[in-house]
Amino acid sequence: MFFYITFPLLFLTIKRNPLISLAASLIISSLIIPISIVFSGYSAFPQYYISPIHRLPEFISGVALGCLYSSGFRIKRFKVSLLLISVIAIVFLSPYNNDGWTKNNYVTLPSTCIIVYLLACFNIKKGIFTSPLIFLGKISYSFYLMQLPIVLFTVKYHYMFEWAPVWGVWILLGLINLAMSVICYYMVEKILS
Predict the structure, then answer these.
(1) What's the CA gap between 94 and 104, in Å, rounded?
(2) Residue 125 backbone phi and psi in degrees, to 5
(3) Which residues, at least 6 apart from 74, have a Cβ–Cβ distance to it below 8 Å?
(4) 18, 67 Cβ separation under 8 angstroms
(5) d(Cα 139, Cα 51) in Å, to the nearest integer?
(6) Are 62 and 26 in contact (CB under 8 A)?
(7) With bands split at pLDDT 50, 70 and 90, how would you rate the model's confidence at 6?
(8) Which of 15, 34, 133, 181 could link 142 by a cystine bridge, Cβ 3.0 to 4.6 Å?
(9) Distance of CA 154 to CAs 62, 108, 157, 170, 176, Å?
(10) Which is nearest to 25 in space by CA: 48, 54, 58?
């Protein structure tokens, strides 16, 4: 709700200067959690993770990317290299020592922005391999919404997952999140739209 309320207030400013808005949001997002952790002395999960103020720079980054894309701005060179570097950063660097799941936003957010933007810019045709990805895009909002109950359940009942290796737990939780997202998409989003 916070972001729905702030969007009309921020949109015109971001639209006027999307590159500056993107750069500022990336810098602020990179610093806000580490600085908060230094002052508080702990990662305060899930407070930082769900705090609208701490997540506002990420939202601004997404709006700025949308404005850049709709203005026709495209990255012309090194697209595949940038995509590969960003995927490697998300997989290998972002999770490392990531207190509060947002401490490494200096890696996570720029890499995510590059991945999302480049995928949007690629001329991808709908086909047998891309249709599942398009469907994942359609359920992405539900996927985002279903994370929080799963995360809170996992934090509270972490002992229930001690039987499995960490990677197995992540796969299991990902599949549960995916199933809940599909249900939410068809039972709520499709009915209301």
Answers:
(1) 6
(2) -85, 150
(3) 121
(4) yes
(5) 23
(6) no
(7) very high
(8) 181
(9) 28, 22, 5, 11, 12
(10) 58
Query: How big is the CA angle at 65 (ends 89 and 3), to the nearest 5 degrees?
Result: 100
**Identity of residue 62:** G
Structure tokens at 50: 């769900």
Confidence of residue 44 (pLDDT cuts 50, 70, 90): low
> Can you say whether residue 78 is alpha, beta or left, with left for phi > 0 and alpha for psi between -120 and 50 degrees?
left
- In this prediction, residues 38-52 reach a mean pLDDT of 73
Structure-token pair, residue 155: 């934090």
Question: What whole-number distance in Å separates Cα of residue 128 and Cα of residue 131?
Answer: 6
pLDDT tens for 58-100 read: 999 999 999 999 999 998 889 999 999 999 999 998 888 876 6
Q: What is the pLDDT of residues 146-183, one digit of tens each?
A: 988 998 898 898 888 888 888 888 899 999 999 999 99
